[in-house]
Structure formats: C-alpha cells, structure tokens
Specification:
By secondary structure, the protein is mainly alpha-helical. The chain has three domains: about 120 residues, 3-Layer(aba) Sandwich (Rossmann fold); about 120 residues, Serine Threonine Protein Phosphatase 5, Tetratricopeptide repeat; about 180 residues, DNA Cyclobutane Dipyrimidine Photolyase, subunit A, domain 3 (Orthogonal Bundle), CATH 1.10.579.10. Strands 1, 2, 3, 4, 5 and 6 form a six-stranded parallel sheet that branches. The protein is globular. About 40% of the residues are buried.
Amino acid sequence: MPPSVLWFRRDLRLGDNPALAAAAADGLVLPLFVFDPALWDPAGPVRRAYLLRSLRSLDDSMGGRLHVRVCPPGQRIADLVAEVAALVGAGTVHVAADFGPYGARRDAAVEATLAAAGRALVRTGSPYAVAPGRVRKSDGEPYRVYSPFFRAWSAHGWRAPSADPTPGVRWASTVGSQPLPPEPDLAGVVLPHAGEAAALGRWSDFLGSGELQRYGADRDRPDLSATSGLSAALRWGEVHPRTLLAELGDPGDGGRSGPEVFRKELAWREFYADVLHHTPASARVSLRTDLGRMECDSGPDAESRFTAWCEGRTGFPFVDAGLRQLLAEGWMHNRVRMVVASFLVKDLHLPWTRGARWFMQRLRDGDLASNQHGWQWVAGTGTDAAPYHRVFNPVLQGLKFDPDGAYVRRYVPELASVPGPAVHEPWTLAGGPPRGYPVRIIDHGEERAVALSRYAATTVGRVGET
C-alpha cells in the first residue's frame, strides 16, 4: 500500500499523538515537516533555534526518517504539501487540527487542493486537551470570562492519553528531502534541551521534586525553581497537555492544591486559544475597542524609553531583571511578564501590541494566543481583563515575589553587591544606584496618575458617544 503523509506542525513528538496513530493505521507513514515562510520569516533567532533542535530530536527518534521541505517564497503551502503527497503516491495527509487564524486558513487551502487531486486531509486531535470551539455557554455563545470557561472545560473533560503507536509504526523512506536550515547565531542566549524526551524528563523531575505540591504557593516566585519549565514544550507539542493532566489527579480541595492550580494554568492556555479561535482579529487589535483608542505616547522620548525597556535599563530592578532574563534565555517568568507588560502600557504609555511583538520575536515559547491575550489581560483591553486601574507597582511586586532580591541579582550584575530587599530600590542607597546601573527613566507614581487620567477620559468619551 502507498504511504500516508503525517504532516507535523505543533505536535513534535511520537507519544500521545492521535494523528500519528491514525496515519499508522493506514500503513506506511511518511513524516513531513514544512518550513513555512509565513511562520519562519517573522520568528526570531531563539524561536528558530529551539524549533530546529526539537526537529532534530524528533528526527532522531524516528531513525532519521523525517522528510523536510522548505517552502520557497511565492509557492503556496497547499501546493507543496500536495506535491509531496503525489511524490510518494499518498492518498491521505494526516494532521492535528490547527485552530489559529493563519493555520485554519492554510489547512482549508490544503484540504481543497488535495481534494481536487483525489486526496484527503484528515484532522485527528489538536494541541489542546479540549479543542477550541468545543466548550460553549448554554446559548451557544463562546465564553468571554475565564472562570465560567474553566468550570465548563473541567466538566467537559478530555480523553486519556492515546496509546503510543511507535513500536508498530512503519516509516516510509524519504524522497527528495531537504536539509534543515542552519541554526541561527544566538549571541549567547542559553536554551534548555529541546524535544520529547527532554520535555518528559523535565515533567518527571517536576513531579519527583515535590514542586507540583508547592506550585500553588510558589509559582509566582521567580527567585525559586517553582515552575515546570514546560511552556516551550507545550507550544511545540513536545508533550501534550493530556499527558500532564492525566497525572494531576482529581481536584478535591476547592482548587487550592498545587495540582489543581497547575490544572487551572493549563486551562488559561486553552481559554486564550478558544478566544483567539472565535475572534481572530484579537491577535492584532484590542477586544475592548474603546481602550484601543486610548492616547499613547509617541516621539523621540517615547522611543528612547521603549529602547530602555527592551534592553532592561529602565532603572526599576524587577522590570530590568525580567527583560534581561528574556534576552539571556528566550523566556521570562510569568509573574514578571505581567509586571513588565504593565510597565510598558501604564508607565510608559505605549500600546500593548508593541510589547507583544517584542515578546513574540524573542520568546522560545512564543504562542500567539497566550502571548497576545496575556498582554491584553494586563492592558485591560481583552476578555476577562484585569481592571485598567490595576497598575502593577514594580517595587512592591519585587519586594513581594523576590523578597531577598535573588532574582534581580541573578540577571542584573550591576546590583549583585546590593544585599537583601534593598536591591529593589537602589536609588535609596547612600550615593545612589551602583556604578553602571541606570537612573529611573520615569516616576511610577506620576505615570500611574497619567494612565488613570487617560483611562477616565477614554471611558467618559465612550459613554458620551452613546
């Protein structure tokens, strides 16, 4: 029998992979990965490097059978996938369903092109425990608030991890495969090991260390090793959320235990994917259109401040530590992401979209739904958003979640000699901040007042218009 094609996208693993199981049931399997210019070109070096390392790991796990194609500019992905299918005589191309705005459009085009040639695109599974669009309110409308979504998502449930089909898979020989693109220069950025085995090892270590049980209390502490470190693995599908959910057990404490808080964090990821699925434009524009019209700063001073923010030289240590962690590791702790985002939007008065783009260019776990809607949550412009008047104080946040200053000292070497919590307010030291550390680029109290004034003017104007 001719082989079927398994087109890998955000499912770079062999275990718990329903699309692989469906392809293997057809007979021989040709594993395919396509470098799509629409996704590859905008990606920063960190995301490219992590993806390439994950693909090498996947290829190794299949004995070097991965078929690679680089789609040239101007050629449609639909035509390239159909070309590969025709090359090996495949009647079926198997995929995990993609619910992102671009991915859904691309797959519809591929499906039509294959159908015209008498071939089929078969979708099995998705990157989510519960596929976007599956959970809805009683009136059929999508959820716009997280808490009721979480309850409905939990009640809906999800399938158990699928059986590992790897021992029974018969891989087809590659024909005309291209080499992987060269890995970009990371300029010193240090990435963790990529691939399915590394992800499962990280999860096993997280469970064995007891950190899961402490997760509810410690997850907001960037100075501690208190998170799973699996965000990039989930983004690239090196592990499926079902695999994690299956080991969390049943909730039984009203949602306060570490496992239940971890389950809720996975649900946030699925909530944001559901929101983006129903409102694709929210990747680019504010869901609250009134706040999308709020006055933002512009001009040379605004650009200078944006540059200082990007480089982690704002003069606020907790903010600077987060941005320098991003530059050093392609990742930032989630609590710090919120503080950093609030600083850009409400202290520097710049649009959330600028920060979201910066993050997407530098995060190894850059996920469109989670990134864009996480920024909208902080900016107060999205679904289930924090009230706009909730402005994170970068000093108080540092004192609360990095009480001894260990996180700041790790990423801001100019402050390495400042002991204890004083590191969060270096301007109070005798003689001021240590040599080489910048002075504060703004006064937080003054800029908070400006942000709230602009918010009031925007919302009053909206009421007046109606």
